[in-house]
Amino acid sequence: MPATRKSARKQPSARKQPAARKSTSKPAAKQATKRSTAAKSTARQAGGRKRAAARRSPALEVLRQIQVCTIMDVPEGSFIRAAIAAVEENPDNAPIREVRPGGGLDPRGPFRMALVTEKRWKPGRTLKVKFLDGIASVQEKVAQVAKQWEQFANLKLEFVKTGAAEIRISFKKPGSWSYLGTDALVIAANQPTMNYGWLTPTTSATEYSRVVLHEFGHAFACIHEHQHPEAGIPWDKAMVYRYYQATNGWDRAMTDRNVLDRYSASVTNFSAFDGTSIMQYAVPQELTVGDFAIGWNTQLSPTDRSFIAAMYPTQTAEPGQLTPGQSSPGAIGKHGEEDHYWFQVAPDQTGQYVVDTVGNTDVLMGLYGPDDPAKLMATDDDSGAGRNARIVRKLGAGRYSVRVRHYSPRGTGAYEIRLRRK
Q1: Which helix (H) or strand (E) holds 177?
Q2: pTM of the entire structure?
Q3: Which of the 8 DSSP states describes residue 67?
Q4: Which of 1, 177, 244, 296 has the fewest Cβ atoms nearer than 10 Å?
Q5: Last-in-domain residue among 276, 311, 346
């Protein structure tokens, strides 16, 4: 109460009577102060020794030799803009599955949206690459290694000295990192989209191969292999958090995002987990439970090559035309493959239509339009007979697109697709 506080302030004499303090001599007080200071100093020294011992622990000393990269998130507030840019670059980046109520792209973060298949460049595209700084000999080595991806992906890298460029490389910032695929399109033109923080003229050729192939994999929209939906790495999480805090200054959220979190199998296009992938970090035994470990990968694995070829095919079939009342044969021949169809609704033929599949193959189907192959109208998995997809919608005049893929990104199989007006 206020009265109580006032009463307390009116009794200064009570604070002037600390008998113990009065009876203590000045020399004794000084000695007590010295003892207290000495105790604090000893505690600080002990704490320092403990921290130093932790820094010198054999496990962390081994781990410090591991130089890892980071996938950069687009700037705050740019998720929607990045999604729009991705679809404008390549309409196939439009989601075939609704990832939140109402459909469309979820802007909340990289692990809540269909990240990889929404970041691909248009196959056949030439990407311009420009160095913003760096030593000429280092630049040359980076360019030579990066172009290895051209042997397997239907993308070309053109290194330019002036003008605009989709991929911009710096050597001045800490660490090694890249933005993912088309996310580079929303980064300011004077800012890097990729960085190499430890490459020098004397860096080994093996390290150039490891780091440059890895970062350009991200630039081509490949995720980290250790975040694969089926990775199953038995992480020692306490040690992982400790390591990345000590070496990279990462908090738990940053470590989760770059190391421990796994992508959802339902929204990610992926091959089988590949421990030899160039996108896989080395995983030392010190960071896992038991004797699990993965060594350094320095070359594109066979799976890397086949997967990137599927993502950026050299030949793309023309969409098949669907005719009401007829069925068309289809087949998913390899993992990641997607079949495309289209049909036209005339002004005097508007009404309710059914698009469905028939067969034993578990497919996922998306309907887009009208007159916009990136505008998702509806998606379906198992509404048809067995594991077949079935979409029923009232359609107005216009052109519509249909995309079909296997439910499992590694699945294959034949099916038939039908279109009919009810």
Answers
A1: strand 176-179
A2: 0.70
A3: -
A4: 1
A5: 311
Q: How many folded domains does the chain comprise?
A: 2
Give the three-state DSSP class for 36: helix
| pLDDT range class, residue 2, cuts 50, 70, 90 | very low
Look up the CATH number of the domain holding residue 356: 2.60.120.380
Beta strand 390-395 pairing with 351-358: antiparallel
Rounded to an integer, what distance in angstroms lies between the CA atom of residue 401 and that of residue 196? 42
Q: Clarify whether residues 286 and 354 are in a common domain.
A: no
What are the C-alpha distances in Å from 182 to residues 86, 112, 169, 213, 277? 6, 17, 15, 17, 22
Q: Cβ distance 410 to 397 under 8 Å?
A: no
- Reported as a single tens digit per residue, the pLDDT across 279-333 is 887 788 888 998 888 888 899 999 889 889 888 988 777 899 999 999 999 998 8
Q: Decide if 41 is inside a domain.
A: no
Domain match, 287 and 340 both: no
Question: What single-letter DSSP state applies at residue 310?
Answer: H
User: Quick check: bond before 18 cis, omega within 30?
Assistant: no
Which pLDDT value is given to residue 144?
A: 97
Give, in order, the Cα–Cα distances in Å from 308 to each of 161, 165, 278: 27, 22, 12
Q: Is residue 289 part of a domain?
A: yes
User: Quick one: which H or E segment has residue 196?
Assistant: strand 194-196
Last residue of a domain, one of 311, 342, 359: 311
Residue 152 has pLDDT above 90, yes or no: yes
Buried b / exposed e along 187-218 (16+ C-beta atoms within 10 A): beeeebbbbbeebeeeeeeeebbbbbbbbbbb
Task: Tell me the mean pLDDT in the region 129-155.
Answer: 97
The answer to whether residue 22 sits within a structural domain is: no
Q: In Å, how far from its chain's centre is CA 44?
A: 41
Q: What residue ranges in 255-412 does DSSP mark as E strands?
A: 320-321, 326-332, 338-345, 351-358, 363-368, 376-380, 390-395, 398-406
Note whether 307 and 324 are same-domain residues: no
Instruction: Print the domain residue range for 139.
Output: 69-311
Beta-strand pair 167-170/156-160: unpaired
